[in-house]
């Protein structure tokens, strides 16, 4: 209990002293940090702060590593064509220990096809194209989750970020902190995370902050002797409040239903508290997501598709290799 009080006190200090000042929508850099590369989370409305399990927890709530007891080598990727030709590939390694687990992650984000123009008064439109350029973003991180007791876990992440756009290069250091409570009586978990707290260490642009995030959520899993027998055993439901500090937040929800030990169905929805006006695609409104999980003895395969409204459907896939 003493450790729990220390953690709560630490989180309270962060919330009191954290810069809540609103920023205009163009002020934050490294926007790729707002993209969830995990197909499991992506198919569940990206509501994962209170699920916080498996290697993908490093992207949402590092405290989930505190309950991890298997080694993982995890490869999540966006499937082209993603929105605006985005490519985002990651690799995660998880190593458990006696008090939790640690993980290392590396990811590369890329958007290509930009046109660089210069003024040219000799042309009718006043400018000419001189070359194509791309943007490359790099994230390398180390995360640690530790059990404080059988119910509570705390986690933290430190990440090095590098952003390259044509001849401009920025770099930064970012931190995540997370907290997870897992009830030993009921199959309920409560999660909380602050993400992308940090500072620029080298900047050629005027923006001076990262895309700070606050997440809080709850999840519940239907265990064998928990009643509601019409619901398949180990089914999972979760809901989350997601709040970027520079914009209006969203409510996110997701479910996972195991049809067998080898095959799971997932679905989710993101409700934006401020309407985006993106409409729908293929009669699927903006914010809905679906996914599949295939499980085998030592590896699994996850797939997700999500509607971005008139921007189309996005797709994610991941392979997870695990062993004791």
Quick take:
By secondary structure, the chain is mainly beta. It has helices spanning 2-17, 39-43; strands at residues 71-78, 87-97, 100-119, 127-147, 152-165, 168-182, 188-202, 213-221, 236-244, 250-260, 263-272, 280-281, 284-285, 288-295, 299-307, 313-323.
What tags apply to this protein structure?
single chain, about 325 residues, mainly beta, 14-stranded antiparallel beta barrel, two-stranded antiparallel sheet, about 5% helix, globular
Instruction: Give the distance, in angstroms, between the N- and C-terminal Cα atoms.
Output: 30 Å
Counting DSSP H or I runs of 4 or more residues, the number of helices is 2
- Helix vs. strand class: mainly beta
The SSE order reads HHEEEEEEEEEEEEEEEE
The amount of helix comes to: under 10%
Regarding quaternary structure, what we see is single chain
Report the uncertain regions. 12-26
Largest sheet: 14 strands, antiparallel, barrel
Characterise this structure:
This protein has 324 residues and is mostly beta strands. The chain has a domain of 223 residues. Helix content is 6%, strand content 54%. It contains two helices and 16 strands. Strands 1-2-3-4-5-6-7-8-9-10-11-14-15-16 form a 14-stranded antiparallel beta barrel. A two-stranded antiparallel ribbon has the order 12-13. Strand 14 and strand 15 form a beta hairpin. It is globular. About 5% of the residues have low confidence.
